[in-house]
Amino acid sequence: MKNAFSYVASIFVSVLLVFCILGVAGAGVAKLCANSNQLRNIAEKHDIDEKVYSELERYFHERSSATGIPENVYMDAIDTDYLDDIIDQIIVNGFQQLRGGNATVEMNNEELEASIDTFFNDYADSIGYKKDDKFEQKLDATKNSAYNTIREYCDVYKFGALESHGVLAKASKVYTHLDFILVGGAAIMLVLIVTLLIFNLNAPSESVYWSGVSMLIAGIIAAAPCVYLLATDYFSSFSIKQPQIYTAYTETMKLGTNAFMYTGIVLACVGLLLIIVYAITRPKNAQKKA
């Protein structure tokens, strides 16, 4: 009866241990991949600043017929270094918001403002337009519109949209507690492993077996769907019109999926190793008892 109880109790604890391992692994991968440094590295590695430049060029060209402002008024004063800096600042600011804070994004571009000033003044002089308050208001509105457009296109992870829809505030509640989840999950894992030892006091090696089984199952559960997603190139099927946003999101998802897959593989290997250790040591224990 005691052996039956130990067996059933060990199964129950092992199931809990599987979910605990998956939770700790998920929190660890999130902490590793979801940070400003990783996202900035992705932006730099995949030349997202150049994609933003091309999209801005297309946008201002299409708008020139409606506004009467040639695209070169904007694009001659914008380069990829400027855009790369804005992208980095927006990413850093986004993670500051996730942590419950806020950071400023410095958008100033004196060359851009001078280019817009020159165009407006030259045009006003050519038609004899009086440079009154309306002229100044239109000039300021054009500059603000240019900055807003640049910021929108440089926000490749759409932190602005996520904030306006309340997603960042909700995600912040989880993101700010990742360390607590990791420590708490590790503590629960330790308690569950000690519980397995208590349930198998007569045969301590059994706890090694059950721990190995839990790690093996958790590793398979973690790795299997990741292998499928990567093998089928699932993320490439996303339909996102703006290439900078498409690249940012798909590459970030690939990074997280790869990290979770390798974590699952490591867990499965460790679990399999523990099972092998159990298989080797069990006969020795039986021989000692005999």
Describe the 3D structure.
It is a single chain. The chain is mainly alpha-helical and about 290 residues long. Helix content is about 80%, strand content about 0%. It is built from twelve helices and no strands. Helix 1 packs antiparallel against helix 10 (about 180-200), helix 1 (about 1-35) runs antiparallel to helix 12 (about 245-290) and helix 11 runs antiparallel to helix 12. It is elongated. The two termini are about 20 Å apart. Residues about 285-290 have low confidence and may be disordered.
Describe the protein's topology.
Layout: H1 2-33, H2 36-45, H3 48-67, H4 71-75, H5 80-98, H6 110-127, H7 133-154, H8 159-164, H9 167-175, H10 178-199, H11 205-231, H12 243-289
Helix pairs in contact: 1-10, 1-11, 1-12, 2-5, 2-12, 3-5, 3-7, 3-12, 10-11, 11-12
Instruction: Name the helix and strand elements from N-terminus to C-terminus, one letter apiece.
Output: HHHHHHHHHHHH
> Would you count the extended β strands for me?
0
Shape descriptor reads elongated
Q: Could you give a short account of the major beta sheet?
A: none
- Residue runs with pLDDT of under 50 for 5 or more positions: 285-290
Indicate the structural class: mainly alpha
**Strand-residue proportion:** under 5%
**How far is it from the N-terminal to the C-terminal residue, by CA?**
22 Å
Q: Could you report the average pLDDT, rounded to the nearest whole number? A: 91
What is the helical fraction, as a range of percent?
Answer: over 70%
Helix segment count?
12
Indicate the radius of gyration in whole angstroms: 29 Å
Q: Looking at the chains present, what oligomeric state does this protein adopt? A: single chain
